[in-house]
């Protein structure tokens, strides 16, 4: 798919650091098993600080965004990931989390007005988890994908994953990737299964892998 906009239709382009605020917003608006998580948070930026924004800034990452010219070139969806998960994690530990956690105190309950969801993500800022070794053994590459609800069920998820597969295969020489999803999001699981993803043995529930030959 071309990165140029010649038909005024939604198109895909590489992610840019300047996309960071809208990546955060989309992450919040899809953060409750695909639906909005706004009502779960007092500090709505937290989920995107963990799962979206760092991929626009740190080494060993990649990403592509959906852009809608009809909305002033607004970003309406994304696929973000790391082609080297362990390298990404180290940079996040050294460079990202120390900076973004500065406005939140620890332990999480000391932040006035913090919801249970807020507390969970503040804890992640201070104690970032490592990716499951079984997943990294399967592939060094992982990804996250989120699309605003009004753009879902239109084939964009497949197109975004196709772009990521193309990048990882052709530019990074990889043959597979993995992702983690909320086990409660049955619709997402069915979507990934249709694309060839399979549950990874030995990894936490909700961890799915894709062999590019099956895509």
UniProtKB/TrEMBL annotation:
Top-level taxonomic group: Eukaryota
A molecular function GO annotation: acyltransferase activity, transferring groups other than amino-acyl groups
Domain N-acetyltransferase: 83-213
Matches recorded under PROSITE patterns: GNAT
Entries under InterPro entries matching the protein: Acyl_CoA_acyltransferase (IPR016181), Glycosyl_Hydrolase_84 (IPR051822), GNAT_dom (IPR000182)
Pfam hit, one: Acetyltransf_1
Stated name of the protein: N-acetyltransferase domain-containing protein
Organism field: Trametes cubensis
């Amino acid at each position: 798919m071309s990165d140029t906009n010649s038909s005024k239709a939604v198109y895909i382009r590489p992610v840019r650091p300047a996309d960071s605020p809208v990546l955060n917003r989309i992450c919040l608006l899809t953060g409750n098993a695909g639906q909005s998580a706004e009502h779960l948070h007092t500090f709505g930026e937290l989920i995107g600080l963990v799962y979206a924004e760092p991929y626009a800034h740190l080494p060993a990452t990649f990403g592509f965004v959906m852009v809608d010219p009809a909305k002033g070139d607004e970003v309406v969806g994304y696929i973000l990931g790391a082609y080297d998960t362990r390298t990404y994690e180290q940079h996040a530990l050294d460079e990202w989390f120390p900076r973004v956690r500065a406005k939140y105190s620890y332990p999480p309950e000391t932040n006035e007005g913090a919801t249970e969801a807020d507390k969970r993500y503040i804890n992640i800022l201070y104690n970032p988890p490592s990716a499951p070794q079984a997943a990294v053994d399967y592939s060094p590459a992982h990804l996250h994908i989120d699309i605003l609800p009004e753009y879902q069920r239109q084939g964009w998820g497949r197109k975004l994953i196709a772009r990521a597969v193309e990048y990882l295969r052709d530019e990074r020489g990889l043959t597979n990737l993995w992702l983690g999803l909320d086990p409660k999001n049955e619709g997402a699981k069915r979507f990934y299964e249709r694309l060839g993803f399979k549950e990874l043995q030995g990894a936490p529930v909700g961890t799915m892998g894709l062999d590019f030959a099956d895509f």
